[in-house]
């Protein structure tokens, strides 16, 4: 299976906005006061202690419907809308496609409405799924790590020997930041029949299979962009950024 990185489309003629900031936003203020659960998980992480990340990873246990999310005046009502820390928003057309493929075991479709020009825009769902921590699915000893951020933050002498999941987590807790990954090696426990997945620490992308991408392309789904591994690598090299290669056994 080949996996693509799922991103927001930023083409103005597709999404309606031309500032690159996205079609919709979680605004500090009324929305967060109405959605205290969202505020406590995503905006008060320091209050949750060192395990603040666990609700993020197990989001299906906490996520609730989203009502009255601010939508830019010029935003088009595309099939896919991405603006959240976890998951993305889909209409019924895209939901039907997602429900026809192999999704992570723990996933939910939660009602979502937008507020645009003072009017409610409905017919959308927040699609969320639990993130993979890699504890059971990643070969940490064979994976490769990018320490550039930590060296800038902690000094050029920073080094780490990661052989296990616990080694990785110890480094996360000790430094306060996830270690970058340049090569992520999955073991035989990873389900290569999944059509969508994401990692909690080992990257920040939603990955979709070429099988799911073909279905989306055939249905002419709007609002998204799928980035191939080759394109992602070229982009990272150009920007001197981290590229994470996925290796499956």
Can you describe what's shown?
27% of the residues lie in helices and 27% in strands. The chain is built from nine helices and 13 strands. The protein has helices spanning 12-15, 30-34, 36-42, 53-57, 92-98, 148-154, 165-175, 210-218, 229-239; strands at 3-8, 24-25, 66-71, 80-81, 88-91, 107-116, 119-129, 144-146, 180-186, 196-198, 206-209, 224-227, 245-248. It is globular.
Give a brief rundown of this model.
This protein is α+β, with helices and mostly antiparallel strands and 249 residues long. Helix content is 27%, strand content 27%. It is globular, with a radius of gyration of 19 Å.
Keyword list:
alpha+beta, six-stranded mixed β-sheet, 27% helix, globular
Order of helical and strand elements: EHEHHHEEEHEEEHHEEEHEHE
The structural class is alpha+beta
Total number of beta strands: 13
Mean pLDDT: 91
Helix content estimate: 25-40%
Q: What Rg is obtained from the alpha carbons, in whole angstroms?
A: 19 Å
Share of β-strand residues: 25-35%
Taking the sheet with the most strands, its summary is: 6 strands, mixed
Strand order of the largest sheet: 2-3-6-7-5-4
**Which stretches are poorly predicted, pLDDT < 50 over at least 5 residues?**
none
Global morphology: globular
Q: In angstroms, what separates the terminal alpha carbons? A: 11 Å
Number of helices: 9
